[in-house]
Design brief:
Layout lengths: L6 H10 L3 E5 L3 H14 L4 E4 L1 H7 L1 H15 L4 E7 L2 H9 L4 E4 L6 H17 L3 E6 L3 E4 L2 E3 L7 H11 L3 E4 L4 E2 L14 H10 L5 E3 L7 H9 L12 H9 L2 E6 L1 H17 L6 H24 L6
Parallel strand pairs: 1-2, 1-11, 2-3, 3-4, 4-5, 5-8, 6-9, 8-10, 10-11
Antiparallel strand pairs: 6-7
Helix pairs in contact: 2-4, 2-12, 3-4, 5-6, 6-7, 7-8, 9-11, 11-12
The chain binds glyceraldehyde-3-phosphate (G3H), 1,3-dihydroxyacetonephosphate and zinc ion.
């Protein structure tokens, strides 16, 4: 078992009309829930770590947890830096055992984004790692930054960006957003499939990434609200839209909020029915099981990657 890059995964996903799930990890129970689901469904898997996760759990702990999960499941996973803000954090993850990094230069002017992404790609490729870049900006909350509106990807820029940077995959903005509030109350969820199709036409065979792609599963939101939570307007991307994207050029679908919700719903429910419990294992075991069931549902219903490990 080894930490692998996404190159083969994405090639097979593109040709097979499915996507690989990229799930954010922050602690042992999350790693176990996700990787046990991948094992049971024999699915390819990307585990991704944000700067916030590295700060919370520390790089070395997360790396060792992922290595332990590979030994336990007998599967190889990709280990990816999510939303790398600068060259230094990308280099630190590449040097520290990751197989893939995202350099998120999407908020920079086009030429600056190209220069930064190119610099990361050159270093990453020299070390056998792959790189995800981004064009266009998602709305939503990400690492304390709250972006009010989407700035959709301009398909006219994608070829030049990929050619000049030599990046391995590209995240685009088509109306998904980070966090649990992806559409305004009463607003009909929609994605710009026209942009996705135009990007795919201009980059044939090239793997596209969707961030902010949690469905904010309504059953979890209901449970959270039933047991004292306050998330009345939480709404995500409908599963059928993600499935449609996964059948086309989208090879990587990022999911974090649904993990958070699965865990939080389970823990809230647990305490309301077991108010005297105080052993963390009593409430973290069902939370881990809830993550596992949710990830299995994603693999089968949304990603379409069961049996493709
Ligand atoms: O896109 C952002 C991910 O959900 C990671 O969130 O930075 O709070 O760990 P975080
Ligand atoms: P969600 O907030 O929709 O789960 O998106 C996560 C993500 O894009 C991580 O990079
Ligand atoms: Zn993201």
């Amino acid at each position: 078992m080894a930490i692998i890059t996404t190159t083969e995964m994405f090639k097979k996903a593109y040709e097979g009309g499915y996507a690989v799930g990229a799930f954010n990890v922050n602690n042992m129970e999350i790693v176990q829930g996700i990787t046990e689901a991948a094992k049971e469904e024999n699915a390819p898997l990307i585990l991704q770590v944000s700067a916030g996760a590295r700060k919370y759990a520390k790089h070395e702990y997360l790396l060792k947890l992922v290595e332990a999960a590979m030994a336990d499941t007998g599967l190889s996973f990709a280990l990816h830096l999510d939303h790398g803000a600068d060259f230094e954090i990308c280099k630190s993850c590449i040097d520290g055992g990751f197989s893939s990094v995202m350099i998120d230069g999407s908020h920079f002017p086009f030429e600056e984004n190209i220069a930064l992404t190119k610099k990361v790609v050159e270093y990453a490729h020299s070390k056998g790692c792959v790189v995800e870049g981004e064009l266009g900006q998602l709305a939503g909350v990400e690492d304390d930054v709250n972006v009010a509106d989407h700035s959709y990807t301009d398909p006219g820029q994608v070829q030049e960006f990929v050619e000049k940077t030599n990046v391995d995959s590209l995240a685009i903005a088509i109306g998904t957003s980070h966090g649990a509030y992806k559409f305004k109350p009463g607003q009909k969820p929609q994605l710009r499939f026209d942009i996705l199709e135009e990007v795919a036409r201009r980059l044939p065979g090239f793997p596209i990434v969707l961030h902010g792609a949690s469905s904010v599963i309504p059953e979890f939101v209901e449970t959270v609200n039933k047991y004292g939570g306050k998330m009345p307007d939480a709404i995500g991307i409908p599963e059928d839209m993600l499935r449609q994207a996964a059948k086309g050029a989208v090879c990587k679908i990022n999911i974090d909020s649904d993990l958070r919700l699965a865990m939080t719903a389970s823990i809230r429910e647990h305490f309301s029915t077991h108010p005297a419990d105080f052993d963390p294992r009593q409430y973290l075991s069902p939370a881990r099981a809830a993550i596992k069931e949710m990830v299995k549902r994603k693999i089968v219903n949304v990603l379409g990657c069961a049996g493709k490990a």
